[in-house]
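Quick one - inputs below.
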Amino acid sequence: MPKAKYELIYRDLKEKIEADEFPYQELLPPENTLIQIYDCSRNTVRRAIGKLVTDGYVQTMQGKGVRNIYRPVEQTAFTIGEIETFRESALRNGQTPRTEVLLFTEITADASLSRRTGFPAGSELYYLQRLHYLDGKPLILNHNYFLKSAAHGLTPEIAANSIYDYLENTLHMTIVNSKRIMTVEKITEIDEKYMDLNVDDYNCVAVVTSSTYNSDGIMFEYTQSRHRPDYFHFQDNAIRRPAT
Amino acid sequence: MPKAKYELIYRDLKEKIEADEFPYQELLPPENTLIQIYDCSRNTVRRAIGKLVTDGYVQTMQGKGVRNIYRPVEQTAFTIGEIETFRESALRNGQTPRTEVLLFTEITADASLSRRTGFPAGSELYYLQRLHYLDGKPLILNHNYFLKSAAHGLTPEIAANSIYDYLENTLHMTIVNSKRIMTVEKITEIDEKYMDLNVDDYNCVAVVTSSTYNSDGIMFEYTQSRHRPDYFHFQDNAIRRPAT
DNA sequence: TTTCAAATATTGTTTAAACAAGTTGTTACC
DNA sequence: GGTAACAACTTGTTTAAACAATATTTGAAA
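Output:
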């Protein structure tokens, strides 16, 4: 339920751009027109446009206007670009998700694990291994570490569905921020076994390591996602800051 | 030369956070204090803080304050995360960059190339192959396509230094926006030859495909960067939008 | 017709103010 | 001591206004 007015304007403009209601490379209506359309102040319109800029949908040009530079992307397979659960991502792309829980244990972080994950030594954690299928194909092997104090009550049944759904809707946690690092690593025997890969074919996987924070500023999750290389697809939009 | 006040405040706070002047997990001074420190309005302070949020440096909590969640990252090798030239990135990480131009030609986009790159068919282009070395090691093999009309006067000598430096400082072009897609691809013979790789070791490379726009909204560059997998490292910070 | 200056249109920055919404601390009351 | 109401503090949203900076159009003068 979005309440903020700028959020509504942002979504409306975004939908219109995606629906091709503004021609590619052409200018959107000027701010003054949008102010009348949406019956709001200039700041509110500008805030909505600012979000479209960071999305890479439009480009503002001082003195000229706001140009539509949105291009639809071909959804090859699995696409990430925001904090989105596997399920959300799959459904958005019209695919059928399934998750298999390979391992569900509780562990205490020792010095080594603490260094690797960033959890304080001695933290009580859930450690899970999960395999994500898309349209029947195993694509992602996840190693999840959840802080027990923040995700208490987690079960294998929940893990087979959506952990985030549980955290957000049952525990009422608010997920805010996720720092991610992408690398490419050599395939392991576990990868090979579960993701149906063959060293003679691909001998690497794409690895996304993420540390996720909730609204209390607590890092409650550390996850390593190992992706089948032939289905890995990550999108990004970068903005160049003016010269220093 | 940053002129905007919010930009100065943003940079000052960012430096202070990186210099550990605010303790990790603690709150920054409240807005009202920052208003006095920087002698500005509340909006201006909030704009600076907003940029720190998207950088993943801080987290705002309504009713509580702004928490520092910045963690320094170990710079393993080559790190991307903004629009940055190879040279800028290398120097920022204290490394020695060198670029070798393998190929410098001028071509006209046919239907196939147009479909692949997004340039209109018939576009006059520069096509370059460049090899980027870091501390003597060949790490990135670039296939660059530049729109001739936007990058006229490009020479192999310029390409061996910094093309962006030429575009920005000589042609006075303003680079604004870059859409990037990351995938993992099978290694090619060219990759193997130039990046000193061995199929028996890694048989994949990390591929970053980028389409870059200037301030006129023109896509003037299409580049495919093929990275040595063992040195590839991409950082990102994602923010979860509130539930729909 | 050409050229230069002024006016107009558009986005960029900053200030000020009011109210909303969430958190924390205090105080009065039982 | 416990609790509930209240006050104080903090961030979130929105409006209004003024001026700056850039691009385009208009119009007057040569």
